[in-house]
C-alpha cells in the first residue's frame, strides 16, 4: 500500500546524528481490515534528550515502555496481514496514549520515580515534543485508518499494551485485560474469545478504557470505528516464545471477530469519558 505520510526529519541540530524516527509503520495486506497500534513499543529517547537523567535500570522498566508489546504486535501483524503503527519513543518523553491536554502527557514523576529531564519542563518544551513526536505518530495512525477507509474498508482497531504483574504491592491476577469505553463490538467478543482460551481476562481491568483523548478515544470512539485495547501481563511476555504464543493466540481470537457483521460499519456509541460525544 502507498502511504502519503512522510517520516519527518525532526532532529533540528545541524549536522548532528541521523534523524530520530518517531514511529514505524507496517503496511497491511490489502484485504485485511485489522490495524494494530503499539503506543508504548519503545523505551528509546532521541539523542538530544540523553537518558532524561534516568539510569539504565529505570529506562528498562515499565515506566518507560510496555515490555513485550512490540514483539507481539510485529508477530501478530505478520500472522494476520494487519497494518500496524508503532511509536518509537518512550512514553517518558511524551505519552502517545494521552490526549494533548492531559496533565499526564509528560510525566514528571512515574511510579514513584522522579524523571529529572521532565521535572522543570515548560509549556514551550511540551509543545515541541507534541509537534515533533506525539503529533506525527497520531497522524501516522490516522493515516492507516484513512487509507483503509479510502479502500472502502471499515478498519478494526486494536491497541496492544502490557502491564506489570504487581502494582503497589498487590499481585494482579488477570493474565490479560480488554479495555473499552462504550462500543462493545470488539471488546465483548475479545473477552469471550480470550476466556475460551483459558485466559483470566479483566473486563476494563487493570485500567478503565474510558479515557478522554487517549488513542482509542481519538481513533475509534470519535470516528465510530470498532476498537479496543488489549493489555497483556508482562511476566507472560518475558521471552520471544511467550510473545510468539500470545501473537498466535490473538490471531486465533481476532479472526472470527473480523467476520462479524457488526464490525463492518461506522457506529457511534458515545463515551463514558466525554458526555459531549453522544451516541447517534
Ligand atoms: Zn501501554
UniProtKB/TrEMBL annotation:
InterPro entries, A to Z: N-FG_amidohydro (IPR007709), UCP029730 (IPR011227)
Pfam families named in the record: FGase (PF05013)
Top-rank taxon: Bacteria
Record-linked Gene3D superfamilies: Zn-dependent exopeptidases
Protein name (Swiss-Prot/TrEMBL): N-formylglutamate amidohydrolase
Biological source species: Candidatus Rhodoblastus alkanivorans
Record lineage: Bacteria, Pseudomonadati, Pseudomonadota, Alphaproteobacteria, Hyphomicrobiales
